[in-house]
Write a structure and sequence with these properties.
The structure holds two protein chains of two kinds. Chain A is mainly beta. Chain A has strands spanning 5-7, 10-14, 19-24, 31-37, 44-49, 55-58, 61-65, 71-76, 85-93, 99-102, 106-111. Chain A has no helices and eleven strands. Chain A is globular and about 45 Å long. Chain A starts with a strand and ends with a strand. Chain B is mainly β. Chain B starts with a strand and ends with a strand. Classes of the chains: A mainly beta, B mainly beta. The A-B interface holds A 1, 6, 9, 31, 33, 40-45, 48, 88, 90, 92, 96-105 and B 4, 31, 33, 35, 40-45, 48, 50, 56, 58-59, 90, 92, 94, 97, 99-104, 106-109.
Chain lengths: 112, 115
């Protein structure tokens, strides 16, 4: 069974601070995704990283995929209250079935 | 397009009762998935389908059955509900490969409580 360890589980920061969320696995994934989930809603895809060492930016969010394709990080610069939510990493596997293995999530609260 | 919809949004069941959760998508997606989300556990895959008439077990299939009689619908059944099945259930779908982003589109969830 492939597992994704996500840390920290909870994060409460002041508006304007920077933060990093980590997603680690002992297994190799074909690609890794980051989702954001608001209360009462389903997760929404932020980014997919495919190539080892890949870096993608989405406004103030920077996503990195480790060289060995076993780990990833999400860095948010100058966090804003609108960034509050549950961030989930997910590894894509299951040849042909595109199953996702999710981490347990990081609940982020950005205090104004 | 409505995307992925789930019915019902909320449900309370007594132990031993049965129910069916309906997931519908209007995006002509080939693959569909059922997950459950519990506090501190992330999302765990229950069953999935790679096409009409096909289903397969995921990580936590026990106590659940599924059917995919029509491409646009994926049903999740609980034959005899147990308190351990109290959870939020999410359905998701994805286009038929080849695809590049592997984005799964999620429904809004069904909150189920079993007493």
């Amino acid at each position: 069974t492939q597992l994704l360890e996500q840390s920290p589980q909870f994060l409460s920061i002041q508006e304007g601070e920077n933060l990093t969320v980590y997603c680690n696995s002992s297994s190799v994934f074909s690609s890794l995704q980051w989702y954001r989930q608001e209360p009462g809603e389903g997760p929404v895809l932020l980014v997919t990283v495919v190539t080892g060492g890949e870096v993608k930016k989405l406004k103030r969010l920077t996503f990195q995929f480790g060289d060995a394709r076993k780990d990833s990080s999400l860095h948010i610069t100058a966090a804003q209250p609108g960034d509050t939510g549950l961030y989930l990493c997910a590894g894509v596997s299951g040849a042909g079935s595109y199953q996702l293995t999710f981490g347990k999530g990081t609940k982020l609260s950005v205090i104004p | 397009n409505a995307g992925v919809t789930q019915t019902p949004k909320f449900r309370v069941l007594k132990t031993g009762q049965s129910m069916t959760l309906l997931c519908a998508q209007d995006m002509n997606h080939e693959y569909m998935y059922w997950y459950r989300q519990d506090p501190g556990m992330g999302l765990r895959l229950i069953h999935y389908s790679v096409g009409e008439g096909t289903t397969a077990k995921g990580e936590v299939p026990d106590g659940y059955n599924v059917s995919r009689l029509k491409k646009q619908n994926f049903l999740l059944g609980l034959e005899s509900a147990a308190p351990s099945q109290t959870s939020v259930y999410f359905c998701a779908s994805i286009k038929k490969p080849p695809i590049t982003s592997y984005e799964q589109y999620f429904g809004p969830g069904t909150r189920l409580t079993v007493t």
